[in-house]
């Protein structure tokens, strides 16, 4: 075993890399591939229309990997409120060992999951939220910098500051999320005090990600300038791939007199975004992407990606040693 961190030890994984929850992407195909490659794959609960569908997806994933995998439960504003407690209960019933939680007022869900001994990895974009989560008894924090895809929070603090603030002030181990696509990034995260990294956009662009090939090619062609922030007006800021629909949504957000979310809702609808991954039309609806999209230049298998990340991280750590020559004892 090369990497030995609090994350690898507690989760029973080989590489300190987690595939973050991604709406319409976190199916068994991807989660099992990541887990088979030594990381922790994650099924996205709300991607399954009902808790019973999540149960089926967990069972399917079990047939595809013998390694541990987790489930993401995100509690953010939605157009149709999901039965979060029922999704959590399915995780308990099906013997899931790790749940990634994210979003607002996660207390009741975390309490239910903790009562069953599930390891909670809670995602947050500020130290204040991280400290509240610590009080709820979470086991790990996933510190999500402003570079990240999807819900970036309202504080706009990038990971260079956020991770060091986490190291200085949190008494619970944390991983770094947002802005990671390679082993150099992982080495930097470990240097800043993290026990591992979380990657989303990078895993969307792997052979096993169950999304249309055109979208993977779009990711390869994109630069770090190709994301856009929407929904700030409603304090639900989301970083998305900058396409025609997002530009329309931003225009309405800025110009709307009423300030009603309903005006922008048809543009940012998740149902429409889901179609993008099925039909391969990058402009059909909105889809999340992090600034890390500018670092992605190929479509490897999860196995190839994870071995490369390990090698790059080891090389980066070795290289940094060259800059330090211990004084020889006289
Ligand atoms: P949806 O179609 O219900 O909503 C689309 C977008 O509008 C989402 O960003 C949502 O947060 C936002 N939204 C909905 N109602 C809102 C309101 N009243 N005010 C402000 N913003 C509002 O969402 P979906 O695509 O079906 O996704 C379901 C849930 O999962 C959403 O909360 C979404 O944000 C969240 N999500 C989860 C992940 C994940 O990794 N688990 C990734 C992306 C989004």
TrEMBL record:
Gene3D superfamilies: Aldolase class I. One of its GO terms (molecular function) is nitronate monooxygenase activity. Transmembrane segments: none annotated. The keyword Metal-binding does not apply. The keyword Oxidoreductase applies. InterPro entries: Aldolase_TIM (IPR013785), NMO (IPR004136). CDD domains: NPD_like. Keywords: Flavoprotein, FMN, Oxidoreductase. Coiled coil: none annotated. This is Enoyl-reductase I. The lineage of its organism: Eukaryota, Fungi, Dikarya, Ascomycota, Pezizomycotina.
């Amino acid at each position: 075993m090369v990497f030995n961190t609090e994350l690898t030890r507690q989760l029973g994984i080989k590489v300190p890399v987690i595939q973050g929850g991604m709406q319409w992407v976190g199916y068994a195909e991807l989660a099992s591939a990541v887990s088979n490659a030594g990381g922790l794959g994650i099924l996205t609960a709300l991607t399954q229309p009902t808790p019973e569908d999540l149960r089926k997806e967990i069972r399917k994933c079990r047939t595809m990997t013998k390694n541990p995998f987790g489930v993401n439960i995100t509690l953010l504003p939605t157009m149709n409120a999901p039965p979060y407690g029922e999704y959590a209960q399915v995780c308990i019933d099906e013997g899931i060992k790790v749940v990634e939680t994210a979003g607002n007022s996660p207390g009741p869900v975390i309490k239910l999951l903790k009562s069953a001994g599930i390891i909670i990895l809670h995602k947050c974009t500020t130290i204040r939220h991280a400290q509240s989560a610590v009080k709820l008894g979470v086991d790990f924090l996933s510190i999500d910098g402003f570079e990240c895809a999807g819900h970036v929070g309202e504080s706009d603090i990038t990971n260079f500051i956020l991770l060091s603030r986490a190291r200085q002030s949190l008494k619970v181990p944390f991983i770094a999320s947002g802005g990671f696509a390679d082993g150099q990034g992982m080495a930097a995260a470990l240097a800043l005090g993290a026990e591992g990294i979380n990657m989303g956009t990078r895993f969307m662009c792997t052979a096993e990600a169950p999304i249309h090939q055109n979208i993977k090619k779009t990711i390869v062609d994109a630069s770090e300038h190709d994301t856009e922030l929407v929904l700030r007006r409603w304090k639900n800021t989301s970083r998305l791939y900058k396409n025609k629909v997002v530009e329309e949504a931003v225009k309405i957000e800025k110009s709307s007199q009423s300030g009603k979310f309903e005006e922008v809702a048809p543009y940012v609808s998740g149902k429409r975004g889901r179609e993008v991954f099925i039909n391969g039309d990058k402009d059909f609806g909105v889809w999340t992407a992090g600034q890390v999209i500018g670092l992605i230049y190929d479509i490897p298998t999860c196995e190839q990606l994870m071995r490369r990340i390990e090698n790059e991280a080891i090389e980066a750590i070795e290289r940094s040693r060259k800059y330090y020559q211990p004084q020889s004892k006289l």
